[in-house]
């Protein structure tokens, strides 16, 4: 090449050039790479945790609440059975379950989420990671849990429970039993699901082996662990 045909730049020089603007940091192609990195980090952190059960429930449950004590017992029982506890790593039910697992020397996983005013991962987590994207984090819950226990909670808990039920219903995940703790709390929702959703033909029969509402913590743990194939 001669004269003005000779390029004034090349890709190597472009790579090394200092950035004048950082707008690219906020563009979708760059986000895709961050999402990929989050998946890679998550898979790397969790691939070898062994059998695990996810515990979902309110971030707002007080330490004196009976449900906090029940979630702590679940964490303990799972650890005693050699099963890892996976939570969102936050306060409330998540903290209680991690606390129980940690106290019994079990694997206590906290998959935190970046949120404004968030206090960070609770101190009873011994395998923790913080995610930027809810959907990446939900993939980790589903991929690495062989069962789930759902305590009373709000939108976050409902989102996690319905994600799992949808994936089970569409056979995207293998058998993943779900135990719901707190008959009174869940009764209204499940009466509506049975009386309206099912009656209108919007869902198929809920498999009683896979979705169990109970007040009995032993039963909840047994149901959640029934999906473990060792
Ligand atoms: C609301 C408060 C803190 C929020 N911190 C959270 N940290 C980690 N994970 C969370 C947090 N909030 C919600 N989640 C996830 O959703 C579920 C609980 O949501 P709910 O709306 O409270 O039911 C839980 O299982 C987490 O995975 C201040 O206390």
TrEMBL record:
Q: Which reaction does it catalyse?
A: 9-ribosyl-trans-zeatin 5'-phosphate + H2O = trans-zeatin + D-ribose 5-phosphate; N(6)-(dimethylallyl)adenosine 5'-phosphate + H2O = N(6)-dimethylallyladenine + D-ribose 5-phosphate
Q: What class of enzyme is it?
A: hydrolase
Enzyme Commission number(s) of this protein = 3.2.2.n1
* Keyword flag Ribonucleoprotein: no
Please provide the record's keywords in A-Z order: Cytokinin biosynthesis, Hydrolase
Q: Which InterPro entries match?
A: LOG (IPR005269), LOG_fam (IPR031100), LOG_family_nucleotidases (IPR052341)
Check the record and name the Pfam families matching this protein: Lysine_decarbox
**What's this protein's family per the entry?**
Belongs to the LOG family.
Question: Which NCBIfam families would you find in this protein's record?
Answer: Rossman fold protein, TIGR00730 family
What is the name listed in the Swiss-Prot or TrEMBL entry for this protein? Cytokinin riboside 5'-monophosphate phosphoribohydrolase
Lineage from the top down? Bacteria, Bacillati, Actinomycetota, Coriobacteriia, Coriobacteriales
């Amino acid at each position: 090449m001669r004269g003005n045909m000779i390029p004034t730049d090349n890709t190597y020089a472009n790579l090394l050039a200092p950035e004048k603007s950082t707008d690219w940091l906020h563009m979708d192609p760059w986000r895709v790479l961050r999402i990929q990195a989050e998946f890679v980090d998550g898979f790397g952190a969790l691939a070898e945790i062994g059998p695990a059960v996810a515990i979902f429930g309110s971030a707002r449950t007080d330490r004196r609440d009976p449900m906090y004590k029940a979630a702590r017992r679940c964490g303990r029982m799972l650890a005693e059975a050699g099963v890892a506890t996976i939570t969102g790593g936050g306060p409330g039910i998540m903290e209680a379950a991690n606390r129980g697992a940690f106290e019994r020397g079990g694997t206590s996983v906290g998959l935190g989420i970046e949120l404004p005013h968030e206090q960070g991962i609770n101190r009873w987590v011994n395998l923790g990671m913080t995610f930027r994207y809810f959907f990446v984090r939900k993939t980790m819950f589903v991929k690495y849990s062989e069962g789930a226990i759902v305590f009373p909670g709000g939108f976050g808990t409902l989102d996690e429970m319905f994600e799992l039920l949808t994936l089970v219903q569409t056979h995207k995940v293998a058998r993943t039993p779900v135990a719901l703790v707190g008959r009174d709390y869940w009764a209204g929702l499940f009466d509506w699901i049975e009386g309206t959703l099912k009656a209108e033909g919007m869902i198929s029969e809920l498999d009683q082996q896979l979705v169990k509402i109970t007040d009995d913590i032993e039963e909840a743990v047994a149901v959640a662990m029934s999906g473990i194939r060792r």
